[in-house]
């Protein structure tokens, strides 16, 4: 997943196979957006586009995670080209376990209470999607991968729309009573799910199936980009595939609504379609037309994507372990103290203060990552 671009302009060298600068840039934009939306100064004051849709529907923030899984799929098609490499399956499993372990560590830290730890999570879903898509990629051909996307999406729709939910009755898409929520509670127990909801999880087990389809759509895009077609043809096909996927999304939305928390099949088509078009645009501008100067900040994020995502989740927790005594006798965590001192004080609007806090966090990480990038420090997972 953490592969380097071959662009000499950016000082990167090949790791096993040539990579696209546009892919590193697209990954970097996505990771920077992840950090932005995951770290507002105040969760109670965020602008609507920087928050998730309440249930059905979507916002720009809802695109970020599926874009990353799509990019994981594209990366797999490049990184695992030598499908017969000795020990490849073992390396795939090892990387998946490390990713899952990092996600579980974030959920455990700092209390390390195994009785209430949330088992699902973002890194855990990345691990499962990476494992499934990698094994599918090295064991099947392109045609089979296409069929599997269809089977996963249609199969998930049938499960969620027609299978009765034990203890609740007919199939439904409500937050607490849908089949996926029941499945998570039954297998994991409510104490191991998302603390905000307690009875369902946005990265639950059943919804990982269509998330695998998101990764497979990225593999198909990567396979196209590696083909012998001309650059113009590749770009055109990515755009056409994106348009068809968007049309399918809004047709399906009529009876299986676009929903990020459920990762509905229409949501997969929507986000994959937009990801295809975004990748096509990046590919045409950066790799074909050569507009590369602006990409450096994003490549800095892209080549250390998992590292910065993990640390950006860990450091706020560490800061909040540093307590400061307040005049009223209460204690305030370090992160909250920094926000109140340097942002709330200087912004009249709490929404602007919250956004400024998030942007500052991203900027701090850019400085760190750019120094690492210039020194060619790449931490691979």
Automatic annotation (TrEMBL):
<feature type="transmembrane region" description="Helical">
    <location>
        <begin position="20"/>
        <end position="37"/>
    </location>
</feature>
<keyword id="KW-0472">Membrane</keyword>
<feature type="transmembrane region" description="Helical">
    <location>
        <begin position="147"/>
        <end position="165"/>
    </location>
</feature>
<feature type="transmembrane region" description="Helical">
    <location>
        <begin position="63"/>
        <end position="80"/>
    </location>
</feature>
<feature type="transmembrane region" description="Helical">
    <location>
        <begin position="353"/>
        <end position="373"/>
    </location>
</feature>
<feature type="transmembrane region" description="Helical">
    <location>
        <begin position="262"/>
        <end position="286"/>
    </location>
</feature>
<feature type="transmembrane region" description="Helical">
    <location>
        <begin position="237"/>
        <end position="256"/>
    </location>
</feature>
<feature type="domain" description="Heparan-alpha-glucosaminide N-acetyltransferase catalytic">
    <location>
        <begin position="19"/>
        <end position="159"/>
    </location>
</feature>
<dbReference type="InterPro" id="IPR012429">
    <property type="entry name" value="HGSNAT_cat"/>
</dbReference>
<dbReference type="Pfam" id="PF07786">
    <property type="entry name" value="HGSNAT_cat"/>
</dbReference>
<feature type="transmembrane region" description="Helical">
    <location>
        <begin position="204"/>
        <end position="225"/>
    </location>
</feature>
<feature type="transmembrane region" description="Helical">
    <location>
        <begin position="298"/>
        <end position="319"/>
    </location>
</feature>
<protein>
    <submittedName>
        <fullName>DUF1624 domain-containing protein</fullName>
    </submittedName>
</protein>
<feature type="transmembrane region" description="Helical">
    <location>
        <begin position="122"/>
        <end position="140"/>
    </location>
</feature>
<feature type="transmembrane region" description="Helical">
    <location>
        <begin position="92"/>
        <end position="110"/>
    </location>
</feature>
<keyword id="KW-0812">Transmembrane</keyword>
<keyword id="KW-1133">Transmembrane helix</keyword>
């Amino acid at each position: 997943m953490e592969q380097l671009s071959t662009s000499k302009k950016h000082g990167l060298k090949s790791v096993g196979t040539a990579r696209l600068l546009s892919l590193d840039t697209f990954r970097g934009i996505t990771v920077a957006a992840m950090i932005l939306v995951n770290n507002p100064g105040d969760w109670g004051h965020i602008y609507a586009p920087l928050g998730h849709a309440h249930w059905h529907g979507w916002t720009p923030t809802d695109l970020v995670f599926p874009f990353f899984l799509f990019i994981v799929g594209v990366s797999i098609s490049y990184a695992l080209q030598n499908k017969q490499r000795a020990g490849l399956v073992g390396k795939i499993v090892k990387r998946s376990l490390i990713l899952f372990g990092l996600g579980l560590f974030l959920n455990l830290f700092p209390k390390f209470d195994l009785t209430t730890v949330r088992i699902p999570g973002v890194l855990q879903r990345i691990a499962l999607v990476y494992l499934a898509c990698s094994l599918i990629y090295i064991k099947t051909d392109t045609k089979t991968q296409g069929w599997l996307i269809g089977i996963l999406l249609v199969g998930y729709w049938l499960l969620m729309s027609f299978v009765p939910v034990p203890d609740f009755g007919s199939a439904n898409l409500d937050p607490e009573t849908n089949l996926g929520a029941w499945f998570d509670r039954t297998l994991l127990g409510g104490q191991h799910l998302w603390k905000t909801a307690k009875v369902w999880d946005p990265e639950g087990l059943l919804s990982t199936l269509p998330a695998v389809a998101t990764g497979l759509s990225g593999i198909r895009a990567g396979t196209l980009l590696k083909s012998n077609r001309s650059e113009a043809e590749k770009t055109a096909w990515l755009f056409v595939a994106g348009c068809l996927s968007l049309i399918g999304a809004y047709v399906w939305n009529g009876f299986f609504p676009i929903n990020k928390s459920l990762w509905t099949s229409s949501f997969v088509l929507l986000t994959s379609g937009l990801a295809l078009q975004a990748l096509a645009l990046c590919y045409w501008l950066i790799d074909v037309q050569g507009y590369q100067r602006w990409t450096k900040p994003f490549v800095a994020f892209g080549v250390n994507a998992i590292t910065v995502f993990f640390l950006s989740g860990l450091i706020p927790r560490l800061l909040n372990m540093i307590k400061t005594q307040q005049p009223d006798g209460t204690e305030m965590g370090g992160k909250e103290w920094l926000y109140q001192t340097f942002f709330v004080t200087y912004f009249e609007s709490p929404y602007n203060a919250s956004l400024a806090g998030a942007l500052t966090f991203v900027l701090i990480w850019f400085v760190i990552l750019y120094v690492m990038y210039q020194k060619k420090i790449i931490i691979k997972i």
